[in-house]
Amino acid sequence: QVKFVESGGSLVQPGGSLRLSCVVSGFAFSFNIMSWYRQAPGKEREFVASIHSTGESPYLADSVKGRFTISRDNSKNTLYLQMNNLKPEDTAVYYCRGPGYWGQGTQVTVSS
């Protein structure tokens, strides 16, 4: 059974930081590109970041460049998203994605 389980979402003040994790099981994690997406209330789901199977070539959306970092640990089947200098517009449910699969999401709320 394939499982993508995100964690790390929380309420944080503007300018704060969070690290999201996505633990994957039942899936060839180390052989696949992995991504983070997010969906804000009333908006479509949007791409945030992706990373190749080897951990090379991280790619980030313009809206998060310079603030977010994507990484992975293939020995732990875990994908990460380090989010710094968070803004209210980063408020969304964040989803982990591998080819053909999505996690259930974790809520990030940026508010004072």
Q: Which percent range describes the beta-strand content? A: over 45%
Give the H and E element order.
EEEEEEEEEEE
**Strand count, sense and closure of the main sheet?**
7 strands, mixed
* Straight-line N-to-C gap: 40 Å
- Indicate the mean pLDDT: 97
Helix count equals 0
Describe the overall structure:
This protein has 112 residues and is mainly β. Helices cover 0% and strands 49% of the residues. It contains no helices and 11 strands. The strands form 2 sheets. Strands 2, 4, 5, 6, 9, 10 and 11 form a 7-stranded mixed beta sheet that branches. Strands 1-3-8-7 form a 4-stranded antiparallel beta sheet, with no helix packed on it. A hairpin with a 2-residue loop joins strand 9 (92-98) and strand 10 (101-102).
Lay out the secondary structure.
Blueprint: E1 3-7, E2 11-12, E3 18-25, E4 34-39, E5 46-51, E6 59-60, E7 68-73, E8 78-83, E9 92-98, E10 101-102, E11 106-110
Parallel strand pairs: 2-11
Antiparallel strand pairs: 1-3, 3-8, 4-5, 4-9, 5-6, 7-8, 9-10, 9-11
Descriptors:
11 strands, mainly beta, 112 residues, 0% helix, seven-stranded mixed beta sheet
In short:
With 112 residues, the chain is mostly beta strands. It has strands at 3-7, 11-12, 18-25, 34-39, 46-51, 59-60, 68-73, 78-83, 92-98, 101-102, 106-110.
